[in-house]
Amino acid sequence: MQPLINNLLYTKRKLIQNDITLQGPVEIVKGTPAQYTIENYDSFSIYSVHSDVDIQIVNNTITIIVPSNYTKSSVIFTVSKDGNHSIFEIMIIPVATPSIISPENNVTITTSEFTIQSSPFSGDGTHQTSDWQIASDQDFTNIIFQSLDDASNLTSITVTLDNGDYYLRVRYRTSFGIPSSWSNVVFVTVSSQFQQFQILTADDPERAAYDNFGYSVSIYGNVAIVGAVNADPGELSNAGKAYIFRYNGTNWVQEQILTADNPERDAGDYFGFSVSIYGNVAIVGAAGADPGGVGNAGKAYIFRYNETNWVQEKILTASDKVAVTSSATLSQFMAMLQLLVHVMLTQVESEMLAKHIYSGIMEVLGFRRRS
Length: 371
Description:
Immunoglobulin-like; 5-stranded mixed beta sheet; 2 helices
């Protein structure tokens, strides 16, 4: 038996064994039907076929389908005519195993986001999809990320990973749905570090020296808020401001300047002393405000984004407020208020929570609650 091998994919040749002459491909692809025609077919003879793969004969046409999980490099089939057997061997075209070319094996990646690059596709058919896998173990029993049958990221994919050790691999699928073997496994360590992306400054015609822009900051997703505690809105010295910035996919852009909308607003309110933001809600502390004329008792302002502007929604004050006159105590109070704003962040609607927290702060500072 001579194997029938040809370097030209799908080239049809006459395959001759004994008195059987077949016309058909000399190489086949897994999962794809291959047809052969018996050229010297004799309608008065009895034909049969046999193989370890799916094979059938109808009149003078033989159809073979090799399953995608077939492990042999060739397929052998027998064509019998009136009890005489002719054996044929057809080579199977493999899908070339890809390799990961970037990142290199056993390297440390210093950014959380990076791109995995694999070798070009080779083999019969077309490169239809890829299977990407990232695991925390080399046996790939603990998959951290995978993208299967990915038609968009054929030879590269960008991923974002937390710090840690990872194993990477890929395989290709043809237009026939045939997978290649998995690529080489690449081991990487992700150890990302923060890098300066952009410097924010106040875009404000009233901006002046000693505004203390950046005295307080908070960020949530693509939105940030920055307090300028000593800014002078409307020439009110140290009344304070806060600035909203939003990331547009390229840069952080100033979206709005927040100031206290309050008839009691006055110099020395220190609006922006503490800030925090969560979703579409922001809270700004004004530690030096004088609610109801109570000196330095402080206020907090709730703002909500309505998809167009940030609108002041609520002014929070303590029901048991007490004037703060000592400069040392005021400094302590301001530090505690800054903590208060962050604690209140996820429950900005609850005045009762604010009152209880504020009351506790005042007791810590040595003030007695009013009956």
